[in-house]
Fold this protein.
Amino acid sequence: MTGGFSLELKNVRFAYSDNEKRQDFSLYVEHFSPKGCTALMGENGSGKTTLGKLAAGVLRPDSGCVLYNGADIAKRKLGQIGRCVGYLFQEPSRQLFTAHPLTEIAFALELQGISKSEAEARAMELLRQFELEHIIGHTTYTLSRGEKQRLAIAATMVMEPQFFVLDEPTTGLDKRRRNILVQTLHTLLAKNIGILLISHDREFADALHADIRIMDGGRLVDEKA
Amino acid sequence: MKKPDPRIIFALVLVLSSFAVIIREDLKLMAGLMLMSILCALAIGVDFRKMFRRLKRLLQLLLVVSILRSIFAPSGTILLESWGIALLTVGGIEMGALVLLRFGLFLTSGAMLTCYPVRMLIQGMVQIKMPYEIAYMISVGVRFIPQLAEELKDSLIALQLRGVVIEDLKLRKKLSLYTYLLLPVVVSSMQNAKELAMSMDMRAFRAYQSRTSFFKLMLCPSDIVILCVISAFAVFMSVVLIMGV
C-alpha cells in the first residue's frame, strides 16, 4: 500500500496488434503490485515500458485487469487516470506544452476551471519546491534535459498524483543532475507517493532503495535481484 | 503487372489534383474524376483498406467539414427546415459532397505516390529537372510524417495524463488545447530537422557540385501510352470545362 493508494495488475495479457515492429511481442503478468519504489529492470525489448504504460493506463490490456485501490480502470478515461497516476516519458520535451515554465504547470489547473491567479500561485509553489525558480523567464524548450525533466515532474505533481511511473529518467543526465533527481524522488517517496521506475541504471535504483523486479521476454522474472 | 514510371504518376497526380481545384460546382464531373482516380489507384496497387484505417480520424473530420459546408451553404430545394432556417438543401448537400470528393481526390493522389520507394520518387523528381535539394527535402518530409503523427499521439497521451479529460471540456477550451499540442511537435520537428541537417553535412551532402546516379529511370512504351492517355484526358477535361458541356 502506498499512502492509501494501491496499484495491482492481475493476469494481464497484452500484445501489439498494429505495430509492425513489435508484432512478435507478448506480455503476460500474473500478479504485480508495486509498493513504495519499485524498479523494473531488464534488457531492451523485455517489456518494461509496456508494463509501465499498462500500469499507467496508457495501454489497455487484452485480458486481465489493472486495479487502482481495488477498482478496475478499464472504463476510466485517461484524463481521469492522470489525476491519480503521473507518467514521466523517456523524452521530457514531449510532455512540455507551453513556452513558459509557470504556465506549463498552471495550464492543466486552468483547464479544470481554477482561476489563473490561483493556478499560477500553485505553480510557483511547485517551482520553489523543485528548486526551479531560476528557470522562470526562460523558455521551456531552451532548458537543459535535467531541468525539463524536473519541470515535467513538477507539472505532473500539480494534479497531486498518488503514483508515479518514470520511464528511463536518467537517460542523458550527468552525475550531478542524477543526484538532484534522486533527491526530488526521495521527496515524492517521503510524501507517500509510489514510484514505478523503468530503468537500466542499477545504481540509480539502489539510491532510491527500490524493490528491483526483472523483466525478460514480456514476463516478470520471479527472482528479486 | 509492372508499375508505370513514377514520372507518369507525377503527371497523373498533377492532372487529377489540378482539376480537383479547378472544378467548382460540377458534382457529376468531380464524381467522374474521383472514380477515375480510384481506378488508377487500384491499378497501381493502393491498399484502400489500410489507407482508410490510417486516415480514419481525418476522414471523420472531412465528413464533419462537408456536413457543415452543406448546412452553411443552403441553396435550391429545401429538404429540412427548422424555425424558418433551411438546415438541409439540395444545393447544400451538393456543396458538401464536392468538398468531400475534392479532399478524397487529394488523398487518393497522395496515396498513389506512396506505392513507390522513396529512392524512385527522388530519381523521378531529379529526372524531371527538379533541383536535387528540393527532391531530397520532399522525400525527407514524407519520411517524417509518420514520426510526427506518433509524436502528436504521445503528446495527446501526455496531456491527458496531466488530468485533462478532453471529452469534458467546453469547445473554447478544447480549441485552446490543440494549440498546446502543437508546441512539442513543432519544437521536436525543428530539433529533428537541425540534427538531420548536421548529420547530412557530416556525411558530405552536396560537398561536390554535380551528383551523378547509377540508377536511372527509363520510360517504356507502355509509359508513353499512359502519358498520352493522361494528356488527352487533360485536354478533354479542359475543353469540357471551357465549353461548359
